[in-house]
Each structure stands twice: as structure tokens, then as C-alpha cells.
Write a structure and sequence with these properties.
heterodimer; A: mainly alpha; 0% strand; elongated; B: mainly alpha
Chain lengths: 78, 201
């Protein structure tokens, strides 16, 4: 059986669908039997989905500054 | 943004464009930072917004808006580097050590977990980022990880750019890109895991 360390090393490729079916099967079998690795995979998925949200949103001042910059660049062209 | 709003956005709706800026501006600065450096990232993204505003009518929704905006930022960042006759910040880092394993100390010699992940008690990204302390910890970590790791992480996980495109843009091999992404994700995982267990960074 695969080691937990091997599962962690292949986790990204499993999520990206880049593993051969044999390797994928070996990982799935391991995951059926190992609750630590199941937890790792579940939490890694949540973490990856959180990355696009990690930077937060711009505040009013920043939005106004960008919109003003767009406006002034439009005006300079006309 | 739903399809009606997208059509309005393409017709030049200022309010919806402001919403776009609000939702994506910080992520785009984070994307430009490992390419041109923090100081110039703001200028690059500001210029990218002007180009995006002019081009939004032609957005065909073949990719997510974040991905489309990210491509404009990357092009703008590359133009900036060319105009200053500069290379990527991490251009000459060479091959990446594939044997480096950031979680090595968490495994026993037989490869089983010695120190397994804690239970985060969250089932969604929003729940994970509820804590402003954790958000600050993550921001600090992102600023500290090497630029090549951060570039791949931002492009793949935040901007949704396909892997082969990332390799082309950064002129790195696919195996190096995979190692860099794995390493960046592992650093984030370690930080969140530690935070969930101790309440500290």
C-alpha cells in the first residue's frame, strides 16, 4: 500500500486529474483506509478554494482611485 | 456576476465595473507582485484596469472574469519589465529541488503520519477565512514565500490560469511548476493547520 507521504506528494496531481488510472486507484484505496489522509485531502480542497478569496476586497477609496484613473485616461484620448 | 449583469458590464455599466474593481483589485496586485515587485505592481494593475475597461465589450466569457483580467495584468507586467529592460524577479533561479518536502517532519520513517493534520472544523472557504487573524497570517506568509512559488500559486489557484500557460508565461518546466505549486500550497496548509490547532500564526 502507498504511504501517507506518497499520497500527500501526489495530492495536487490527483486533484488536477493528472495521475494514471493505476496511480489514482492506488491513492483512492489508501484514502478509503486512512482517515488522516482523507482529512488532509478534504482540507486541502477547502484551502485551494480559499486562495482566490484570500486577498480580500478593495475599499471605496481604492475603487474610486481606479475609476478616476480610467476616467482621466479616457478624457486624455478625446 | 450573472449573465444579465455581464451584458450590462459589457455595455459599459460603471457601477458594475466598480464592483469588478472591488472584487479583483487586491488579487491582481498579488498576481503582479511576484513578477514586477510590490512597488510597481500598483502601477501595472492600474494600467491593466484601463485596458480592461476598454476591452470589456469584447469579453467572450470563455474564461472566468478573474482569469481574463489576470491575463491583461500579466501582459502589462511583462511590458513593464521590457520597458525597464528587466527580467522576471526569479528568472535565473534554475532547477527546483524536487526532493525538498515541506511536510517531511510530519511523517515517520515508514511514511505514515507522525503528526497528522488537525481537524479544521470548517467545510467551506468562507468559513476558513472568517478569522481576520488568520487572514493576516496568510497575507504575511504570502509576502514571505519565494517569488517563484507565489507566482505559480497566484496564477493557478487565484487566477485560474491553465498549467501549460503558466509554464509558458514564466518560462519554467512543467515539473518545476508542479513542485513550486505543491510547495506553496504546503506552506499555506502548514500555516492554517498550525493556526487551527493553536490560534496563532
Amino acid at each position: 500500500m502507498l504511504s501517507c507521504r506518497a499520497v500527500v506528494q501526489d495530492a495536487d496531481r490527483l486533484l488536477a486529474g493528472e495521475l494514471t488510472w493505476q496511480r489514482r486507484l492506488a491513492l483512492k484505496i489508501h484514502l478509503l483506509m486512512c482517515h488522516h489522509c482523507r482529512r488532509y485531502m478534504r482540507q486541502l480542497r477547502v484551502l485551494i478554494r480559499a486562495v482566490p478569496l484570500m486577498h480580500g476586497r478593495a475599499n471605496d477609496e481604492q475603487v474610486s482611485e481606479i475609476m478616476a484613473h480610467i476616467g482621466s485616461s479616457e478624457n486624455s484620448e478625446h | 456576476m450573472n449573465s444579465d449583469q455581464l451584458e450590462q458590464l459589457k455595455l459599459g455599466d460603471q457601477k458594475l465595473f466598480s464592483q469588478l474593481v472591488r472584487d479583483h483589485h487586491h488579487a491582481l496586485i498579488a498576481l503582479a507582485t511576484p513578477i514586477v515587485g510590490r512597488t510597481e505592481a500598483e502601477e501595472v494593475v492600474q494600467n491593466a484596469w484601463v485596458k480592461a475597461y476598454k476591452a470589456i465589450a469584447n469579453f467572450e466569457a470563455r474564461s472566468a472574469l478573474r482569469t481574463w483580467l489576470s491575463r491583461i495584468v500579466i501582459n502589462e507586467a511583462k511590458m513593464q519589465l521590457r520597458s525597464r529592460k528587466r527580467e522576471f524577479l526569479f528568472a535565473d533561479m534554475g532547477d527546483v529541488d524536487e526532493n525538498h518536502d515541506a511536510l517531511a517532519d510530519r511523517f515517520a520513517e515508514n511514511g505514515r503520519w507522525k503528526n497528522s493534520p488537525s481537524n479544521w472544523h470548517v467545510d467551506s472557504p468562507d468559513a476558513l477565512l472568517m478569522s481576520s487573524d488568520l487572514e493576516r497570517c496568510l497575507q504575511r506568509l504570502l509576502a514571505e514565500i519565494p517569488a517563484n512559488q507565489r507566482a505559480v500559486l497566484e496564477m493557478r489557484d487565484s487566477s485560474g490560469i491553465p498549467f501549460d500557460e503558466i509554464c509558458n508565461e514564466l518560462t519554467i518546466s512543467a515539473s518545476n511548476a508542479r513542485v513550486l505549486l505543491h510547495r506553496a500550497r504546503t506552506e499555506l496548509f502548514k500555516l492554517v493547520d498550525h493556526y487551527q490547532e493553536t490560534g496563532e500564526c
